[in-house]
Structures are given as C-alpha cells and as structure tokens.
Design a protein that fits this description.
single chain; mainly alpha; Arc Repressor Mutant, subunit A; Tetracycline Repressor, domain 2; elongated
Length: about 220
C-alpha cells in the first residue's frame, strides 16, 4: 500500500509578511511618483513599473488609485505601514502623560516636523487634485476635519495644565496650532524658503510657547 503523503504546512505568517512587503514597496513607489508629478499625472501602470510589480498586483494588494492615495496619506500621518489612530501614536501617549504644557508643545513640534517631512508633498498633491476627483475631495474634507478635532483635544489637554494665557480661548489655541501644523505652512518655510526641518521644529516650539502660554511664574 502506498504511503499517504502529508500535505505541507501552510505558512500563513510567511505569506502575510510577503504581502506586507509588496504593499510597502508599492506604497513607497507611489509616494515618490505622486510627490514628484502630482496625483493626476501618475498612472497605476507607472506605479507598477516603479515598484517592479505587475499592474494587477497593485490593484490586488491595495486597490484602485484613490484607495492607494488614501493609504499613502494615512501612512504619512501615522508613520506606520497602516493607519494608526491618534491615541495609539507614541508621541500622543507621551504628550498626554507629560504634565508640563511647554514640554507638551515641544513633543508635538517634534512630531509635526517628522510627520510633515512625509506628509507635505502628498498633501499638496491631494490639494491640487480635489477638484477633479470627488473621492479625493472627500478625503481632503475628512483629513481637515480630523485635524481640527484633534487640535481641539490638544488645546483642552493644554488648558488642563492651567498654563494657557488668560486672554486666549481654548478654541483660539486649537485654531492657532491647526494653522501652524499644516502641510502648507511646512512647505512655505522648509521647501520654499529653505529652512532646515530642525529650524522649523525650533520655531514651532518657540512660537507656540510664546503665543499660547503664560510666562513662568505669571498669573496673566
């Protein structure tokens, strides 16, 4: 009687790792192309060539072009291969645990500098494409509203320290930080004016601390 042949074990973790590597390669290739040429000028076929995969692989691994671009935006914001909610991000946990308002702002400025180095080129490409693609217009609104909501949470966290200036409201604090953490602001100073990213970070720390917080030892 012939011996039965046992099936080979199914290595799901290995397949998952390979799929993750493929998604990462595609995402990195797409990020380069979108940042350089803009959203509308880049085709899925070009992304496939840049990534060294078949066009069908791009669709199978991630999805159509708007879905791919959404993934890129979420990766740039999170600093991870997939989207991470705000409360799961390392810098957010560190900020929430920090009792000092000045240090909270310093932690956030460092995070903004790192995030915008990844996000600003993509966000500007998104801004240029919203009129031609309703899916991207919806993504733009979603990201903008999410940023505003997160800044209200940050402003409330700062207010809880008792260190905000007495003549500025929590809503104003949120709006000021929202305007200065934007991709457009980073692009103006770092890309257009040639500021080193470290100088941009130092400027945010100094400006936010001066604009939003009482002087140490002051009741004003």
């Amino acid at each position: 009687m012939a011996k039965s042949v046992k099936p080979r074990p199914y290595h799901a973790p290995r397949r998952a790792e390979a799929a993750a590597r493929t998604r990462r390669t595609i995402a990195e290739a797409a990020s380069r192309l979108f940042a350089e040429h803009g959203y509308n000028a880049v085709t899925m076929a070009q992304i496939a060539v840049e990534a060294g995969v078949a066009a069908d692989t791009v669709y199978a691994a991630i999805g159509p072009k708007p879905m791919l671009f959404r993934l890129l935006i979420e990766r740039a914001i999170s600093g991870e291969d997939e989207a991470v909610t705000p409360l799961e991000r390392d810098y957010v946990r560190t900020m929430r645990a920090e009792p000092d308002a000045r240090e909270k702002l310093a932690i956030y400025a460092r995070a903004v500098r790192r995030i915008q180095a990844r996000l600003a080129p993509l966000f500007l490409a998104l801004q240029a494409a919203v009129r031609s693609d309703p899916d991207l217009a919806a993504l733009w609104r979603e990201i903008s509203e999410r940023r505003a909501a997160n800044m209200r949470l940050l402003a409330a966290d700062l207010a809880a320290t008792g260190s905000l200036r007495a003549d500025i409201s929590v809503e104003q604090v949120a709006d000021i930080i929202w305007s200065m953490n934007a991709a457009e602001y980073y692009d103006l100073l770092v890309q257009q004016r040639g500021w080193p990213p470290e100088r941009f970070e130092a400027w945010l720390i100094d400006a936010w601390q001066r604009l939003l917080l009482r002087e140490p030892g002051s009741d004003a």
